[in-house]
Predict the 3D structure of the following.
Amino acid sequence: MQFVQTIADLASRPQNIEILQDAGVMSMLRPLMLDVVPSIQQTAALALGRLADHSDDLAEGVVREDILPQLVQSLASKNRFYKKAAAFVLRAVAKHSPELAQAVVACSGADALVLCLEEFDPGVKEAAAWALGFIARHNAALAQSVVDAGAVPLLVLSLTEPEVALKRIVASTLSDIAKHTPELAQTVVDTGAIAHLAQMILSPDAKLKRQVFSALSHISKHSVGLAELVVEAEVFPAALACLRDPDEYVRKNVTTLMREVVKHTPELSQVIVNCGGLAAVVDDLGVCRGNLRLPGIMMLGYVAAHSETLAMAVILSKGVPQLALCLSEETEHHIKAATVWSIEQIGHHTPEHAKAVAAANLLPQLLQLYMEVSSSEDLQNKSKKALKSVLQKCTQLVYLEPLLYEAPSNILKYVVCQFSKVLPHDSKARRLFVTSGGLKKVQEIEAEPGSALQEYINAINSCFPEEIVRYYSPGYSEALLERLENYQPA
């Protein structure tokens, strides 16, 4: 007894693990797990669990020593303390890699754990649910083996238990099962999980809410039908109250859920918009930073992508200045790329939408991100695409003019094209174009003869009297001076 207790204590401190391993402690613990004294058995299991928990190397040792089959076998018959310790060992082995989790499944570990879910003791249920979650999280095949063992109905039943710690772990395990494929998510839904999860949205426990929203997100993401089931469970607008939760991960998971719902159809987006979802997300973007902002940024983009009216709703919720702020504050390229993508979804619909983007001074920023050598390839591509989409709709020349001086020729043609569309119909704009130096700049552009760019320049020039165009063409002043020199007064 003293031996196993000492090993269990030593194994709880990382600095001792290597020494224990070198001393060959695994093979010493193995026979003690079959000891006739129950407390020696469970303490030996606890020590093994702590060792296996520490590294995949030690977890592989547990598999090599052939300890798993005897653990699984004794799970059915032993007392609750032993069951908790044994489930802990299985969890500690399964967590490291799909291969190790498969080893647990191969010796009927999942089936034995499912039997533990039927135990009366909530601690045993918790330990079993936790181990099943660690098996299921790796990939769809492992999650399927947890489903095939009959875990899902018992997990959903455990959500009705009073213990908050058990609810948390069960919600997390359901989330890990549902995340892989539509079929697995459907299995979770078919057992009535959504209604139970929806009831816990307003729980005072932040960690439970994190897991509940995570599970609902993983269910919603796969298909329109599954997202509709989540919405029909009246998760909204109750979930929006959690966007004011002090726990930032609760807020992140709520926003992720909204993102997964709105991406499917305009109708689902409209549901979220109608209950005030946009304003709530825009406010939340103002208080969080870094990766916590990502779901909110993308949620705005998905809503705006569906239609002109939904994009206008994002603009009216002050979404554009908030995205502009995210773009200037964030340093990570993947966050900037997501922000640029969302800006494009808002600005590419009509001149009115493009004006909202241009007015937030985003065109020069997009150009800079596209031309910046240090920008990631994805960020450059998204910036270029966003620039082209928004420019092709932008008719506010005051926002386009700065780009005449900065843009490379592949972007410049879109800028010049917009001028060639607007100037013929707007005398005030023509006058301004001359006095601001725009016309002079256009004459200095070197375009390939016969190219689209050259055609746009010709179209612009045809809006002005010939002598004005000549006056602003490069070399005109030298030609005038030459005429002056050769001029003989009568």
